[in-house]
Predict the structure.
Amino acid sequence: MELYEKCSQFTIAREAMELGYYPYFIPLSDTEGTEVTIDGRKLIMIGSNNYLGLTTHPKVREAAIEAVRKYGTSCTGSRFLNGTLAIHKQLEQELADFVGKEAALVFSTGYQTNVGTISALVGRDDVVITDKDDHASIVDGCRLSLGKMLRFRHNDVDSLERALAKCRPDQGKLVVVDGVFSMGGDIAPLPEIIPLCKKYDARLMVDDAHSIGVLGKNGCGTASHFGITDDVDLIMGTFSKSFASLGGFIAGEELAIHYIQHHARSLIFSAAMPAASVAACLAALDVMHTDPDRRKRLMALADRMRKAFQELGYDTGLSETPIIPIIIGDDIPTVMMWKALFEAGVYTNPVIPPAVPPSKSRLRTSYMATHTDEQMDRVLTLFEQVGRKVGFI
C-alpha cells in the first residue's frame, strides 16, 4: 500500500461533515467558561473540564499576565537544560505538599506526564497492569516502556488479582488506574486495590487528572477522598482541568521522582511549561486552599443534575462525580442527540467507539462550580424536550 492510500480511504469524517453531523474540532470564537460562542450563537457549555471555573478567575488571569511581563512567553528550552525557572520548583514543592507526598515533578502536558513516568519506571523485566478504561496516555506510556503490559476489567478487583497472580514474585510491578474515569465519572476502588498491591508487592500509581480539585480535602484527589494517601505510591495530575492551565505533574517519594526526572524522555526532550502556565497553576492552587465552597458548590450541582437526569429517564451509568455520562447506546442516535442539543443551545461531547465499548456510546456532560441554577434549569428543559423529540425518553 502506498503511504497515503490509507488517507484517501478515510472518508467517514468528511461524510459526517457533509451531512452536518461532525461534532469535533468546532472553533469557539469566545468563551467565558459556562457559555461559549459559536458562529455568533451562545451555547451553555456542559462539555468542559473546567470544574472549578478558574479559567476566568481574576486572580488566575492576573497571575498569568504578570508572569508574561516578568518571564516572557516561553522558556525556550527543556527542564533538563535551560528551561527550569524558580517558579517551576515553587510549584513542585507546593503540589507535593498539597497531595501529601515528598516531591513532585511538573511536565509540559498531562499526556507527557503519564508517558514519561510509566516508560521511565517500567523496565525490560517489569510488568505494568492497567484498568481497561484507563486514559490513552497511560496505554501509550505502557507501549513505550520496555516491560510487559497486562490489563484487567474495569474496576474489577478480582480481575486485577488474576493479572497480578500471573507475575513472577521477583518482577517489578506497577498498577496504574484513573482516580476518576473520564468517560464514566466513576471512582477507582482504591481501598480494595491497595491490599492487592501490598499482597503482590506492586507499586500503585493513580491518575488524578479528573480528581484534583474535585475529590478529597480541598480537592487533593482520590487518595485523600478515601483517606489513604500514604498507601498510594504515585499521584499524577493535570493542569488543564481544575487548574485552568496546561501541564501535568507526578508526585511521590523523592527517590522515585529523582529517578523519573533523569529518565523521562518526554520531560528531557520537551520544552518546559511557560511561566504563565506555571503562575496560573500557583494561583489556582491558592484558590483551592482559600475557597473550599467552590468545590462544595460543584459537587452539589453535580448531584442535582445526576438525580434530575435519572428522573427524566436517562442512564447516567455509575457516575459519582461532576462527569455525568448520558448513555445512549448506538452511535447514530448519540450523534443525533448531540446535534439536536447543539442546535438548541447546549454544548455536549458525543463519545463513540473506540473511546467507549460498543453499544455504550454516550453524551459526556460535565459541570463547573460557576454554572448558575438558571443555566442548569435550561439544560434540563432542553434535555427533556430533545429527548422526547428524538424518541429517546
